[in-house]
Design brief:
The chain has helices at residues 13-16, 26-38, 56-66, 84-88, 91-103, 128-144, 158-167, 186-194, 212-224, 253-264, 269-284; strands spanning 2-6, 10-11, 22-23, 43-46, 69-74, 113-120, 148-151, 175-177, 198-201, 231-233. By secondary structure, it is α/β, with parallel strands linked by helices. The chain has one domain: Alpha-Beta Barrel (TIM Barrel), CATH 3.20.20. Helix 5 (91-103) crosses helix 6. The structure holds zinc ion.
């Protein structure tokens, strides 16, 4: 299995003014992941891109500690989390930067980015800086073919994102629209699926935003319509309080608690395997 949208280290604490948003507890995260590896998790895509507090040394130690394969990403997130270099550089420079991360390795590391993302839009609006990053990311995606994964704020603009990227010439089978479950709008999810993009149910366990009962019902409805080959599952753990050791759901919640919920609803083993095994493998070319 692959979790396609996680953060094993992320730092949004300054912008959010909340120490909880510096997720960096190596030992607690590592222990959770070792448990998950025993239950069949093989791979994690870390979508902490440029300016989000990624740390290669930390990720490499985590890989050795857990035995999992950890894939890294390039891109810039969204406002107000964009560093100065993202705001100041033009589109062409940013495209070249992303392509270099994909082909030559990221910054000081020689580790290559396997995905572009998460690149995002704000609540109900795509700011000019965010639009520039989308255009730059689209250029890098067209050039390299690596998947492009987005952040929607509470699911807003999911449809606009996929249309915009398609207009920019991105193959929809390379596009992953993130956090779409949070829009609480099944019709929107179908519209994005009909555009040919992947829909990522990646906030599993974040029940303060949307109940897992509803999330599971959305997934069941999509699987019933035959969309399981365009769906992905993940948890997007971003806070210390999300870890099991701190009373949160923890990374294993998806496998231990959420999959049984899908099975009760009648979601087939084949569909579950599409969402957690086949589709990530197809997207990542592994
Ligand atoms: Zn996100």
């Amino acid at each position: 299995m692959t979790y396609m949208h996680e953060h094993l280290r992320v730092d949004l604490s300054k912008e959010k003014g909340d120490r909880d948003c510096l997720l960096d507890d190596f030992d607690a995260i590592g222990q959770e992941l070792i448990g998950l590896a025993k239950r069949g998790l093989r791979r994690i895509v870390d979508v902490s891109c440029r300016g989000m507090g990624r740390d290669y040394d930390y990720l490499e130690r985590m890989e050795r500690f857990t035995g999992l394969t950890i894939l890294i990403s390039t891109g810039f997130y969204k406002e107000p989390f964009l560093p100065k270099e993202a705001l100041e550089a033009d589109e062409k420079t940013l495209t070249a930067l992303f392509i270099s991360d994909i082909r030559n390795g990221c910054e000081s590391s020689n580790r290559r980015a396997a995905l572009i993302g998460e690149i995002g839009t704000s609540l109900g609006v795509m700011t000019p800086a965010e639009a520039k990053i989308f255009r730059a990311a689209a250029g890098a995606c067209r050039e390299t073919g690596v998947p492009l994964s987005t952040h929607t704020t509470l699911g807003t603009l999911g449809f606009e994102q996929v249309r915009f990227l398609k207009q920019l010439g991105v193959d929809p089978s390379r596009i992953i629209i993130g956090h779409l479950d949070l829009a609480d709008d099944l019709d929107l999810i179908f519209r994005v699926l009909d555009e040919g993009a992947y829909v990522e149910f990646d906030t599993i366990g974040k029940i303060t935003y949307l109940s897992d009962e509803k999330r599971a019902a959305f997934i069941q409805a999509c699987c019933n319509k035959g969309y399981s080959r365009q769906m992905l599952l993940s948890m997007d753990i971003t806070r210390l309080s999300h870890l099991a050791v701190n009373g949160g759901p923890g990374y294993a919640y998806l496998v231990d608690s959420f999959l049984p919920r899908l099975r009760v609803l009648g979601v087939s083993e084949e569909a579950i395997s599409d969402m957690l095994e086949r589709n990530p493998d197809v997207l990542l070319g592994v």
